[in-house]
Amino acid sequence: MMTKIFPYYLVLFLFVLSCKKGDSPAPVDPPVTPTSFSFSDLKVNGTFTGFTYYGLNNIPVVKITFSSAINLSSVNGNITLADAGGTTVAYTSTLENNDNTIVITPTAALQSITKYTLTAGTGLVSKTGTKLQSAVTVNLITAVDDIDKFARISDDELLTLVQKQTFKYFWDFGHPTSGLARERNTSGNTVTSGGSGFGIMALVTGISRSFISRADGLARMQKIVAFLKTADRFHGAYPHWLDGNTGKVIPFSTKDNGGDLVETSYLMAGLITARQYFNGADASEANLRADINAIYNGVEWSWYRKDNSSTLYWHWSPNYNWDMNLPVKGWNECLVTYVMAAASPTYSISKTVYDSGWAQNGAMKNGNTYYGVQLPLGPANGGPLFFSHYSFMGINPKGLTDAYANYETQTKAHTLINYNYCKANPSGFYGYGENCWGLTASDIKNGYTASAPGNDVGVIAPTAALSSFPYTPTESMQALKYFYYKLGNKTWGDYGFYDAFSLQDQWFASSTLAIDQGPIIVMIENYRSNLIWNLFMSAPEVKASMRNLGFSSPNL
After folding, report:
1. Does 1.50.10.140 match the CATH number of domain 155-548?
2. CB 373, CB 354: distance < 8 Å
3. CA of residue 454 relative to chain centroid, distance
4. Fold of 36-142
5. Can you tell me the distance from the alpha carbon of 377 to that of 331, in angstroms, rounded to the nearest whole number?
6. Domain-by-domain residue ranges, the chain?
7. What is the pTM assigned to this prediction?
8. Which sign, positive or negative, has the C-alpha torsion 58, 61, 66, 71?
9. Which of 65, 74, 317, 488 could form an SS bridge with 101, CB 3.0 to 4.6 Å?
10. For every residue of 493-512, which 3-state class applies, written as one string?
11. What is the dihedral of CA 460, 52, 84, 463, to 10 degrees?
């Protein structure tokens, strides 16, 4: 038996000896103990939409789930809730879901329209002693408080209140020496020619509304006109900015240190409006009218055609000549520049300049439909809303037509596109809607931009909707009530509404600008009484100018 078995064991022994080391089964490693745990899930008020949440209630419930059960004693100091300034906010914390989920709830109501940051740091410890692998950060932005910030008044009273409060920018804050409007509420002695034109229209409105007396308004106008008679002019045109004490030019930019024809046209429109208003037979009002005529007749509109070209040019500098090289072409805010130029008794332009320079022989036409509204003129989606405000503070678009457009249709379409865009909110900015709309040039956080559907940075400017009252009274009133009653503790100040705000960024301007405050007063008045439209359109030069340019209107 042994002789039969031996060869088998011998073969097996030799086979084992012949196996290579690499053919041996690998030893099994002992289990690795985890050194960290990780984030698994997040719910804010029961939903997950990423790590940033807008429009939250004032006591949101935040649930963060991890891959391991949490040691509750490690939460304090390793989970923080703080506002944008870094101030910590107290909260309560509990565990659920087998202690894998921490539930965070503020102990007191959070402030409205405020950003809070909830951070779970890597010092957070599990029950087994491991630490959180990577920090978790959640942004929590609270909603607008729906409580009215001011007592409700009638719509008519609200319009008067807005006009009266905004009027203070030009009356109380008007420059003490020149009487002109300062560029903005932080501008010191820097006054603005175009914004002062708007301010003069606001002054007339203020007298008509009995915010001030006619005598006081006349005295302010006399101060303004006396200053303008001696201030710097460049071929009759005023610069964008002037020193309110000396009347000397303050450069808007290096090469923009001379005449600004567009700003001058706004100023002239305001002066002509005042001339039509102060129509008394007494010497003081007669002298005011004569002085205004002399100022207006001194503007060399035709010289700004730049060597007799067929287009008006925006700037000329005594140092840099025509280097700015900016032709005034439509469609934008400059229609009144061509109207004032054509109206001049001394330096008029012809219809040819209007047709080829401004209208570009029809190239300013659009005709496309945006957000369900057909737009006769201008860029896609209409551009910033001041295009439909600045020129039409004096020019009445109602029933106004020429070869290129119906201007009542144009201004209303432009505004409705802006409104519909904000309502649709394709960029998803928090706060936009039927009550919170209006894109135009304004301050933005750390800057200034001409907001429009094609340049939307999430900033709403009250002047956009409020200056559109003549075009969209229902939509503008919705916006006014929202800005005043719901946001008024953040948007309403000494001179009416502040310039702009962003609910997306929880940013509210503290600034007020002449070119934004003026249209609010004036366009609300045009909506209510047609006052400024009637005065401006009553000027004989304006009537003749617009007829000569091919306009037709019941007001001509």
Report:
1. yes
2. no
3. 13
4. Immunoglobulin-like (2.60.40)
5. 6
6. 36-142, 155-548
7. 0.92
8. positive
9. 65
10. ECCEECCCEECCCCEECCCC
11. 0
